[in-house]
Input
Amino acid sequence: MILALTVFAALFFLFQINRMTYALIVAREIDEAKQPRVYKTVNLLILALMILFYLQVYYNI
Output
C-alpha cells in the first residue's frame, strides 16, 4: 500500500516537474531541436533524485 502511494506521488511530482520544464522552454524560447534533450535531462535527473531519496528512506542510509 505504501509503495503504491509512493509511486503515485512520484508520478505526480514528475508530471509537475514536466509542466515547469515546459514553462521554462516557452519562457526561454528554446529551439525545438533541443527540447527533447532538455526534457530527457530533467527527467533523468529528477528520477535519479527520487530513486536515491526512496533508497535513503527505505534503507535508512
Q: What stands out?
A: The longest helix spans residues 2-28.
